[in-house]
Amino acid sequence: MGLKYFAYLSTDEHIENPQFFREEEKALGKAQRELSKAERGTRQREKRRRVVARIHERIKNRRQNFIQQQVARLLKRFGFIAVEALVVRSMVKNPKLAKSIADAAWSMFFTHLTLKAEEAARCVVKVPPAYTTQACSECGQRQNIPLSVRVYECPQCGLGIDRDHNASLNILAQAVGRHGGVIPEAPGAQAVGSRHKGKHDE
């Protein structure tokens, strides 16, 4: 999961971050300013309050629709899904990232994914996020790299790979290891496309 992309898959695909709140932020700010100017108890204030409420409702509905669509696509393609066990409530305490993290709605995504995966007989495994961005997915060598560096370059084996792609491979590897190196089959799901395919999917 991320802020540049909503999610980066081990298949080297990514899901764009729609940033619904950011898109509506200007309109919402204007509506809230207009509301603050209206006199309390007047029809005009109530009218402006409804405008603010409609914008919030629109953001909520667009976000829910996006998450439902993405979860459905993932469950249609994959029988085994590994995700980070992020503690979102702790992450939003960061004032610089709180608004963007809340806008991404990771908690809503995890909840919906888990619920729908159970209904569809798919397997979802959560793994600790520690070191997933620092470890080389090829040789396991760890290094500290700043968030601004988007390409992971391993000094040990020479691997050069997108930072988020590298992390997604580490997440999948951890999850597969917890299942004895075997990815459970799911009726109707396509094979998991990653570098682990062939070793674990056959």
The low-pLDDT segments are 186-202
Task: Enumerate how many helices there are, as a single number.
Answer: 6
Percent strand equals: 5-15%
Tally of domains? 1
As a whole number of angstroms, the C-alpha radius of gyration is 21 Å
- Total beta-strand segments: 6
In short:
47% of the residues lie in helices and 11% in strands.
Overview of the structural elements:
It is a single chain. The chain has 202 residues and is mainly alpha-helical. The chain has one domain. Helix content is 47%, strand content 11%. The chain is built from 6 helices and 6 strands; from the N terminus they run E-E-H-H-E-H-H-H-E-E-E-H. The strands form 3 sheets. The chain has a two-stranded antiparallel ribbon. Strands 3-4 form a two-stranded parallel ribbon. Strands 5-6 form a two-stranded antiparallel ribbon. The model is unreliable at 186-202 (pLDDT under 50).
Ordered list of secondary-structure elements with their pairings:
Layout: E1 5-8, E2 14-16, H1 20-37, H2 43-77, E3 80-84, H3 88-91, H4 98-104, H5 106-119, E4 123-127, E5 151-153, E6 160-162, H6 163-178
Parallel strand pairs: 3-4
Antiparallel strand pairs: 1-2, 5-6
